[in-house]
Amino acid sequence: MKNLLKSAGVLLLFFVVMFLLTASLGLSNADHLLQYVQEMVGSHFILSSILVVGLLWIDIVLSVPTMVLSVTAGNVFGFPYAAILVFLGLMLSGMTGYWLSSLFGDHFLRLVVRDDDAIQEMRQEFYGKGFWLLVFCRVVPLAPEICTCLAGITGMSFRRYVFAWTVSSLTYALVMTYAGTVASIEEPWELLGIIVVFLSLLAAGSWLVTRVTHKSK
Question: Where are the domains of the chain?
Answer without folding.
Answer: 2-216
